[in-house]
Amino acid sequence: MSDQNTAHPRLIRAVSRWQVVGISVNDVIGSGVYLLPAAAAVHLGVISIGAVLLAGFAVALLVLCFAEAASYFDEPGGAYLYTREAFGDFVGFEVGWMTWLARVASVASLSAGFAVATSYVWPPAGEGWGRILTIVIPLAIVTWINVVGVKQGARMAVILTISKSIPLLFFILVGFFAVDWNLLTVNLPSISANELSQAALLLLFAYAGFENTAGAAGEFKNPQRDVPFALLMMITLVTLVYTLVQLVAFGTLPGLASSETPLADSAALFAGTWAAVLMSVGAMISIAGNVSNTTLVGPRYLFALARDGYGPKFLARIHSAYHTPAVAILTQSSIALVLALSGSFVELAMLSVIARMATYIGTAAAIPVLRKRFKDRKGGFRLPGGYIIPIAALVLCLAFLASVTMMNLIAGAGAIIVGAVIYYFYQKRRDV
């Protein structure tokens, strides 16, 4: 007698609450934390310490919106699902499409960045066949792990989260006692409006990635409870880590703003050369963690879109043995690999600003609609203060959107138009 699950394979709920927390933290803490101190210092000087903390509180407004939206659903799709339910198929498709484009660009750029980070430890990784192997092998490994099972992918996320946290905790705990407090009392810099807007975007994207936590909700054991919990835990932990890292870096490394490897340079000063190597390895692990998470979550957007009739049917297939959207996973990794090796992800990366904004604005705007529609649903996480937090989140997004470049806007508009064409094509096929 055939197994029903084999005859009709489906996603299985295998990811526990703390694994969801690991996925959420792993999504946000990446290579950015190793570059943020210098980049923020360039624009804001010593004020960057408080700005990093303030940015965490600001992004928490968006995180809270995602927490409430996630509490109403137990299906995969994240922001695509929230906006589709609130505003209809077209808006939902555009958000899902833009979100997936950002995921592909992310995997490609991170894979290329992994080769750069590895070249500090193994120089051949910087060019030629060494670079190719350094991009291909890690991506192939994380792809295979995620194809084999979501539980394995979640476990890998937790392992990488712990591994990437060790160098950062060392940096904070040891470096704090080496801080020269005189470096934190220098004259406040003069900051132009352009520098302020650039710093705002930088800080927003340092905290970006949380929006992907619910992408694989269909495989979480209790997503309506666990996703909000994971998001709140994540923003608390990440804000604390980022602020302390910025403080230690500024207080231990004179000329922080001019450093290309701020954490490694800082650690070398207060702990020696071996600590710089530790921070470099930490950067590599952080990048690998982000690649792993995006390979776990990104294909679920493709799967959800195809399942709803807005993509080739093969992308909605579930592996009969592994119960994962294996075809969608392999498709995303293949596209990202080509982009990473060719370098053309740079152009695609310009879309990520608008793509993320579409995700954030769509979800914040969906809260009032979802709240009314699911007011009787048990277990929903309701934000306090009525609609104050969603409105504040929308205002925050519009302020950030005003800071983007014209090239970002053009690239985003082009992607939205392409999405509209794809939607129209598949909508006609659905109506036949």
Q: Roughly how much helix do the residues carry, as a percent range?
A: over 70%
Mean pLDDT: 88
The chain-level structural class is mainly alpha
How much of the polypeptide forms β-strand, as a percent range?
under 5%
For the report, how would you describe the main beta sheet?
A: none
Number of helices: 17
**Compute the gyration radius: what is it?**
21 Å
- Note poorly predicted spans: 1-7
Using the alpha-carbon principal axes, give the shape. Answer: globular
Number of strands: 0
What separation lies between the terminal Cα atoms? 37 Å
What is the ordering of alpha helices and beta strands? HHHHHHHHHHHHHHHHH
Structural account:
The chain is mainly α and 432 residues long. Helices cover 72% and strands 0% of the residues. It has 17 helices and no strands. The protein has helices at 4-7, 17-28, 32-44, 48-70, 79-87, 89-119, 128-148, 150-175, 193-206, 223-252, 262-271, 273-307, 326-342, 345-349, 351-373, 388-401, 406-431. The protein is globular, with a radius of gyration of 21 Å.
Strand and helix layout:
Blueprint: H1 4-7, H2 17-28, H3 32-44, H4 48-70, H5 79-87, H6 89-119, H7 128-148, H8 150-175, H9 193-206, H10 223-252, H11 262-271, H12 273-307, H13 326-342, H14 345-349, H15 351-373, H16 388-401, H17 406-431
Quick structural gist:
Helices cover 72% and strands 0% of the residues. With 432 residues, it is mainly alpha-helical.
Provide tags for this entry:
432 residues, mainly alpha, 72% helix, disordered N terminus
